From TrEMBL:
GO cellular component annotations of the record: Ino80 complex
Pfam families to which the protein is assigned, alphabetical: IES5 (PF17335)
InterPro entries: Ies5 (IPR020366)
Name of the protein in question: Ino eighty subunit 5
One GO-annotated biological process of the protein: telomere maintenance via recombination
Organism name: Candida glabrata (strain ATCC 2001 / BCRC 20586 / JCM 3761 / NBRC 0622 / NRRL Y-65 / CBS 138) (Yeast)
Length: 127
């Protein structure tokens, strides 16, 4: 009987290690996809800054309230109208400081900050 138990344990061990390897591969893939997403996000920010130079000035405001995207910019990029609706929702929300940041987002933020951007992305942000 001990041979059967050992065999079952070895089978379960192989099954668990295979699952662990699978999860490790999924994590690596997710990190690569996150890096790609972050680079695309940086490119979008650069594009928005070129379309509407006042976005740069908004960042320097002390109260830094979200503003609607200008009609001129929406005329050039109609897909941004959805974001205007989201900004309106933020403006209408009552208590802006009352929220918790989940630990999952902190890890993503640290990953984003440690991410090496493509040379052209870093250059356009520093200008």
């Amino acid at each position: 009987m001990p041979a059967i138990d050992r065999e079952a344990l070895e089978k379960e061990y192989r099954k668990l290690t295979a699952r662990n390897d699978d999860i490790i591969r999924q994590e690596a893939t997710s990190k690569k996809e996150y890096a790609t997403f972050s680079r695309k996000e940086t490119s979008i920010i650069t594009l928005l800054q070129s379309l509407e130079p006042t976005l740069q000035d908004m960042h320097e405001l002390k109260n830094n309230e979200p503003r609607l995207i200008s009609e001129e910019t929406i005329a050039k990029v109609p897909g941004l109208s959805w974001y205007n609706e989201q900004i309106k929702l933020v403006q209408e929300s009552g208590d802006k400081d009352d929220f918790d940041v989940p630990p999952e987002l902190r890890e993503s933020y640290e990953l984003f900050k440690g991410l090496a951007l493509l040379p052209k992305d870093g250059k356009s942000l520093s200008e």
